[in-house]
Amino acid sequence: MSGVIILLVIALLFLVISLFLLNGKGSWLIAGYNTATQEERDKYNEKKLCRAVGILCLLCCLLMCVLAWLGYRVETGTMTENEMLPYGLGFAAVILVAAIATVVYSNTKAKK
């Protein structure tokens, strides 16, 4: 049960971060952007960049909640761990594709 609670806490953290980013106030949370020089920052549209990373964080939040629910089902015995494996692999694939899409979007559409 502690694994489910940890997943929900991480999901809540992703939700808070995504809310900051979707409001355009959390550019300091974006790795690489916060350490870039002013010249490099001027190349990007900060609002679009924050929105893209915020959507990625929101997706992570939703997937963590689904994974917590599936973990709860395993804990209560209504689902076996073998039945959960495809969901976990799908979770990893969706995160990987979304992260790649966010990087591509950030380097194309979020540039000025």
Q: What is the CA–CA distance across the termini?
A: 47 Å
Secondary-structure element sequence? Answer: HHHH
Molecular shape = elongated
The largest pleated sheet is described as:
none
Structural class: mainly alpha
Which whole number gives the mean pLDDT?
91
- Figure out the total of helices: 4
- Tell me roughly what share of residues is in helical segments: over 70%
Number of separate strands: 0
Strand content: under 5%
Alpha-carbon Rg, integer: 17 Å
Low-confidence stretches: none
List the helices and strands and how they pair.
Elements: H1 2-22, H2 38-41, H3 46-76, H4 81-108
Helix pairs in contact: 1-3, 3-4
Offer a concise description of the structure.
This protein is an all-alpha fold and 112 residues long.
Question: Can you tell me about this structure?
Answer:
- The protein is 75% helix and 0% strand.
- It is mostly helical.
- It is elongated and about 55 Å long.
- The mean pLDDT is 91.
Give descriptors for this structure:
112 residues, mainly alpha, 4 helices, 75% helix, 0% strand
